[in-house]
């Protein structure tokens, strides 16, 4: 019985670790996406400001 409980505990711990790692990866990807979108907005505004054809 004790061995079964310890096996379940290890399995749950492994699942929690994988979940935390996945969560960090998602947060990191969202952060990079926000930064990339911000840079794109700045570049587009800059091109629009100098009258770049096609963005007017």
What does this structure look like?
The protein has 56 residues and is mainly alpha-helical. The chain contains one helix and no strands. It has one domain.
Radius of gyration based on Cα positions: 23 Å
Number of strands: 0
* Largest sheet properties: none
Gap between N and C termini = 73 Å
* Estimated helix fraction: over 70%
In short:
The protein has one helix and no strands. It is an all-alpha fold. It is rod-shaped.
Give the topology, please:
Blueprint: H1 2-49
What attributes does this structure have?
single chain; 56 residues; mainly alpha; 1 helix; 0% strand; rod-shaped; transmembrane; membrane; transmembrane helix
